[in-house]
């Protein structure tokens, strides 16, 4: 088997418009494509970040909630590389986005912090 790269990451939000605003306006993703799938009562938006990674943002009528936090089975979190975690946390503060305190990765010595999307999905900032 030869995997080439990660193709996309899928995220389900409880409120599609709210999640789309968060990922595009707040985090800076670009909405590349969007389609309403009537048979599933579901929106699917394709979001690009720096032209490199694609997040597929979905909505469904009644999605299940995350069973536990933060260590639920499945995807643990999505991490974003930034130049300055502390400055990025300050930007999140201006948007009223909930986040944890700045900390240092004990293995690499790099700054990092977790923050949360509108549905409480854990996202990470990791300093380059």
TrEMBL record:
Supply the Pfam families for this chain. Answer: Glyoxalase
Which Gene3D superfamilies does the protein's record reference?
Answer: 2,3-Dihydroxybiphenyl 1,2-Dioxygenase, domain 1 (3.10.180.10)
Q: Which GO terms describe its molecular function?
A: metal ion binding; methylmalonyl-CoA epimerase activity
VOC domain segment(s): 5-128
Keyword line: Metal-binding
* GO terms classed as biological process: L-methylmalonyl-CoA metabolic process
Q: The organism sits in which domain of life?
A: Bacteria
Record has Metal-binding as a keyword: yes
For this protein, the record's CDD domains field holds: VOC_Bs_YwkD_like (cd08352)
Tell me yes or no: is Nucleotide-binding among this UniProt entry's keywords.
no
Q: What is this protein called?
A: VOC domain-containing protein
């Amino acid at each position: 088997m030869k995997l080439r790269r990660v193709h996309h990451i899928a995220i389900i939000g409880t409120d599609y418009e709210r999640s789309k605003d968060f990922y595009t306006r707040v985090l800076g993703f670009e909405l590349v494509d969007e389609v309403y799938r009537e048979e599933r009562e579901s929106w699917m938006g394709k979001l690009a970040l720096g032209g490199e990674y694609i997040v597929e943002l979905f909505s469904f009528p009644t999605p299940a909630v995350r069973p536990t936090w933060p260590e639920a089975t499945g995807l643990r979190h999505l991490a974003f590389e930034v130049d300055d975690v502390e400055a990025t946390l300050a930007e999140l503060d201006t948007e009223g986005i909930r986040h944890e305190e700045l900390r240092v990765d004990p293995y690499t010595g790099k700054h990092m912090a977790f923050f949360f999307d509108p549905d409480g999905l854990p996202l990470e900032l990791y300093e380059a």
